[in-house]
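Entry 14. Structure prediction run on the chain below.
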Amino acid sequence: MKKYLYQDLYELEEKHWWHISKRKLVIEFINKFKPSINPKILDLGCGSGKNVEVLDKIGKAWGIDKSREAIMFCKKRGLKRIKLGEGENIPFKSQNFDVVTLLDVLEHVQEKPTLEEISRVLNKSGILIINVPAFNWLWSQWDEVLQHKRRYTRKMLEKALSENGFKIVKISYWLPYLIIPVILIRFVKSKIFKTNYPSDFKLSSPIINWFFQKISYIERQIVARYYIPFGTSLICVAVKK
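Output returned:
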C-alpha cells in the first residue's frame, strides 16, 4: 500500500462502516470457530493496528506488518505487541497461535510462502480467517494504488488454500449491494473526471455511514449462517488439513 494512505487508514478504521463491519464479522467467526478460550491471535498485515486493538479484547492479540509507517501508527494507538515483519517469514515460533487473521492482505503477497508460514505458526486446532477483494472484473485504479496483485473468486481462494495445507470450513462473498455503486463510482472517477486516485479511504456522510452500518448488521447475520454467491469481498475460515 502507498505510504501516504496510512494516515487515512488510521483515521477511518475507527469509524468507517466498512472497517467496523469487517471487524465484527471476524469476531463472529472467531466466537463460532475459535479453538480455545482467550485465544492467541495474530493479525498478519495489521496496518494501522485497529484490528489488533479490538481483537485484544476477545483474546491476546499480536500484529505484524512489513511497513514502518504501519508500525508507527500502531505505536500511536499505544499497541505493544507489534512487530515489523513479513508474511513469508513470520517472526514467531511454530504452533504459537490459535487464530491468524489475514484481512485484505493475501492479494498483496505471494500465496505459497505466506500460507506455508501461517500453517507453521498456527496451532493444529487453530483457525485462519481471510478476507480478500472479489472478482477481477471489479479491478480498478484503486487496486493499483493499493498495490494489489489479484482479486479472488471462490475457486481461486479454495485452490490456494487447498494447495497449501488448508481446508475451508466457512466461505462466502459479502457486500453484494456494493457491486453496482462501485462500478459506477469508479467509472465516473476514472473516465469522466480523470481522477488520479490519491485515496478511496474517505468517510461518507454520517447518515450514509449510519445507514450502511445498519445494512451490514443484517448482512452479518446472513453471512454467518448462509452462503452469498456474489459481492465485492470474499471471506473464509480455514483450518489445517
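Residues 5-240 form a domain with the Rossmann fold fold (CATH 3.40.50.150).
Filed with the rest of this week's runs.
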